[in-house]
């Protein structure tokens, strides 16, 4: 009897932990040499254990002839333990079914929640496909009014969860947030009357699970999968600086797709943002604790009033809900690597959303790079509930203060500019086109009017030149004597 063992090839995992391993190094620089030494020792142990793995078939054939089966396996296990490789210990933590819903169960819970509160919540499912690949995204809208006309006059917030399949905690946060909005659950130490008064003036769209196909792959056993159902990273598939590759680019994990918006999921999200026209966008991830603003593809933050409003809001959230643990700043400047083609940069640069953020709500920096579930998701009940409560509190702080901060920022700017004189050259040069409206949107009507003024001014100059030319030519003809031809 022959037994054959297959040992799958282990991919490199250095880039998998890239999101926050550089942050960990910033905090533990003095331990860098110790970590390198441990890594070298681990490689030596693996090389030794591989020698025994290659001998397994021979040992097994001999073992069935000369040794009892139980004694043989005990001997092999002892050899691997001595060499630092215990087969009885798994290198990855499985999904805790007691804490986390499956994707189907989560969708069912959300639909039941919406059906119980039709006066506040409504849900729609958007489907699209590309080259035979089908994707669908459910969108839940919270509003005290169900008419689109009323909603357009309110302050609008768009939240996206579950863009990467392995980040299960983000979808659980979406469910908890919707439960609080429907008043089936409460935030500890909160005033429900005050919250209701705040929410009266808001419309909130929640995408609980942006990457459903990728989530299915994770539930099937690939706990490290972050991409969609055909291997594209949805947070590299947007158009701002798409396709650019850094030195540490990982083609497996950061595949940007065949082109900007090649994936149905990003096409759906773009359509939602265009029709909803939000004032605040938040993309929720896990892997570390951070509060990021643009830019991801640069190591700087934007200039101007909107940047000041965003940073002040994030610093307030860090003090109130992160207890100072969260990194605050641009994604590209804070993490230590640049990301190109991200959703947040698109929302700020192209969609002109005044406040755009990426929230990183949890990360276990002590987890092995192979233990993806533990790296990106809390595994115990206490930490699980703490993360959900803290970040629900952060979201409600945004609901209460985001509009006020934008109003205050732009009203102060308007006050400072009162009485400032501008020359006609500046006026015609289009300086007024860069003025922002109440929530930072470009004043398209003013821009169109200025274009018409400049067009009419050019036509006036051209017609004046033509008239002068005609007038001068007539005068010159009248003064010149007529010359008869010779006979």
What would the keywords be for this entry?
487 residues; alpha/beta; Aminopeptidase; 8-stranded mixed β-sheet; 16 helices; 48% helix; globular; disordered N terminus
Q: Can you put this structure into words, describing what you see?
A:
- The protein is of the alpha/beta class and 487 residues long.
- It is 48% helix and 11% strand.
- The longest helix has 36 residues, at 381-416.
Encode the helix/strand succession as letters.
HHHHEEHEHHEHHEEHEHHEHHHH
Please report the total strand number as a whole number.
Answer: 8
**Percent helix among the residues?**
40-55%
Q: Write out the strand line-up for the largest beta sheet, numbering strands in chain order.
A: 1-2-4-3-5-8-6-7
Give a topology summary.
Elements (H helix, E strand, L loop, with lengths): L17 H10 L4 H35 L2 H14 L20 H14 L4 E10 L2 E10 L5 H5 L2 E6 L7 H14 L10 H8 L2 E6 L4 H8 L44 H13 L3 E6 L2 E6 L11 H17 L5 E4 H5 L7 H7 L5 E8 L9 H5 L4 H36 L7 H5 L15 H36 L8
Parallel strand pairs: 3-4, 3-5, 5-8, 6-7
Antiparallel strand pairs: 1-2, 2-4, 6-8
Helix pairs in contact: 2-3, 4-6, 6-14, 10-14
